[in-house]
Amino acid sequence: MTARGDRLLGLVLLVLSVAYGWAAQQWPPPFGGQEAVGPDTFPTILSVILALSSCYLIAKPDPDTDWPGRHTLVELAVAVLVLIAYALLLEVLGFVLATTAAVGTLCWRMGARPKGAFLTGLIGAVAVFILFNHLLELSLPAGLLEVERWIP
Length: 152
Description:
Layout: H1 3-24, H2 41-59, H3 70-93, H4 95-109, H5 114-135, H6 147-150
């Protein structure tokens, strides 16, 4: 990609970050009033990081003009498909199972052994689930692991 292409990509990502940040601010305040950490906090942080990264890409484009090979493009396509599947299955499977599958698959595609890749996904998913559900009190979908689902 040329410097012009990098700048164009940076501009598109900057517009995306602004739209994403604006959409994050449209969440209604949580029941009981505004909290320091609400449903808009994490998306807002992501939009700021994307905006800063986009500005850097616009200001300092990469001089390297080589396109990745076919293998790299296939791996990127697989990663996009995994992330789309993750978004579609998050509510159904729940955060822990969907995240374990997505992170495990992506780690495996990046060269990790399957057992280690999926163990990394499981440990990360459980840690984030505990952090969000119990410490930050922001509920993530339990999906198939929901206790009420199995108790009559």
